């Protein structure tokens, strides 16, 4: 654990490396981002752009994407001066939520709807809350009055569409599965033309950060996922042809490795929940590579990256990214570990 601690300590993210703006507003296209490639076997580091994936990947490789669609999970009560960030749905009207602002037991929302705090959530600082007075499904209410969760490094209230991947189709993610954001349909088409296979699954991503340098414990936050039959078939066919499985995002790693752990020979669609915590000691059964965003110093996602790279290679990669002005967060650059 010493090297990971040293990574946390050595890794201070300067303000100018926070990506404030969607890539398509900084350049010509949402695919106009840099790609840092760290070779898993050698630790060699190379600078690329995302569109270079057409050359970095090989025919018969399989890229797996998360098609979960971001929901507007943040509600603001101007009456009570409270911001509510929904974290996980428990029942039709009950959720775990992060409540920021005044300490309230009842929060006044729009259309006469109220949010009642029922007690503590699965871990601090989450609370169990229940919507009362709804005249429509929660998701409809959120789309009327909610907004995407936005952290302090984002100054502009970008639209919900800015927090979607182009292939997002199944609503449910509290925060965008952001590793896939930079992919345009044009780039996906070019990859397919190069005989690189593409597959989709769904895992609804939860909240990634609380406050005051507190991050969620993955063990306390089981996430539902679904892998379609055609994706499972594509995984087995790629393996049989000698292709590599590249997960686009940590959510995809969790879903695929959870499936492998439970029923690796299953051929039909697979639906389950997972609280699998992937770390350095976790053997990867199906996933060969990961394309991910760049993660903050104390994020639990860094622990998952240790399953793909030794600590010294991970530290060198992040030092290189810092020195070469790679951008962090959901609108930032990407890191390929393959």
TrEMBL record:
Keywords (A to Z) from UniProt: Cytoplasm, Isomerase, Queuosine biosynthesis, S-adenosyl-L-methionine, Transferase
Gene3D superfamilies: QueA-like
Superkingdom of the source species: Bacteria
One GO MF term attached to the UniProt entry: S-adenosylmethionine:tRNA ribosyltransferase-isomerase activity
Gene Ontology terms: biological process: tRNA queuosine(34) biosynthetic process
KW Cytoplasm (keyword) present: yes
Pfam families assigned: Queuosine_synth
InterPro entries attached to this UniProt entry: QueA (IPR003699), QueA_dom1 (IPR042118), QueA_dom2 (IPR042119), QueA_sf (IPR036100)
Name of the protein in its database record: S-adenosylmethionine:tRNA ribosyltransferase-isomerase
Naturally occurring in which organism (per UniProt): Shouchella lehensis
